Amino acid sequence: MARPVFYSFHYAPDNWRASQVRNIGAVEGNQPAKDNDWETITKGGDKAIEKWIAAQMDGRSCVVVLIGSGTANRKWINHEIAKAWNDGKGILGIHIHRLKNSTGDIGTKGANPFDYVTLKTSGKKLSSVVNVYDPPGHSSTDVYAHIRDNLASWIETAIANRAKI
């Protein structure tokens, strides 16, 4: 049975790339809000967004942050990362910049978003304890295949690592 996970990503530039990863089928992933739904949610302000994120994360065992060129240090990405960590969920990052987008373009590698979230207990950056994967390959097909072949094991590792901390 596939693990239920929550995918965190910068919607506008990376939804196509994120869709490719969600459709791999190795895990049970959440579907992002449709544009119209997201507009309704955001009209409710920060509390409505926090409530929506909490509902989407409920019952998920791991959060997978799909890292594009502009993912790091975004308000809601940081919130999702902190919430996942505080809820004791497994968490990991995957660079997706070399997956093609809807127009066939690849992106530039983004910064590690876990560098922007600090552990309250130790003052260390979360990047010191969370694995981030940068799939090898020169083509989008190679990168996709590497993610497909490793996603389930990366998630299991993240959950096991979180249980130890």
Helix percentage range = 40-55%
Task: Tell how many strands the DSSP assignment holds.
Answer: 5
What is the H/E order? Answer: EHEHHEHEEH
Distance between the termini: 25 Å
How would you concisely characterize the structure shown here?
43% of the residues lie in helices and 13% in strands.
Explained architecture:
It is a single chain. The chain has 165 residues and is an alpha/beta fold. It contains 5 helices and 5 strands. The protein has helices at residues 11-22, 35-43, 45-57, 75-86, 140-164, and strands spanning 4-8, 28-29, 62-67, 90-95, 132-133. Helix 1 (11-22) links the parallel strand 1 and strand 2. Helix 3 packs across helix 4 (75-86). The mean pLDDT is 91.
Jot down its keywords.
five-stranded parallel β-sheet, 5 helices, globular, about 160 residues
Write the layout of secondary structure elements.
Elements lengths: L3 E5 L2 H12 L5 E2 L5 H9 L1 H13 L4 E6 L7 H12 L3 E6 L36 E2 L6 H25 L1
Parallel strand pairs: 1-2, 1-3, 3-4, 4-5
Helix pairs in contact: 3-4
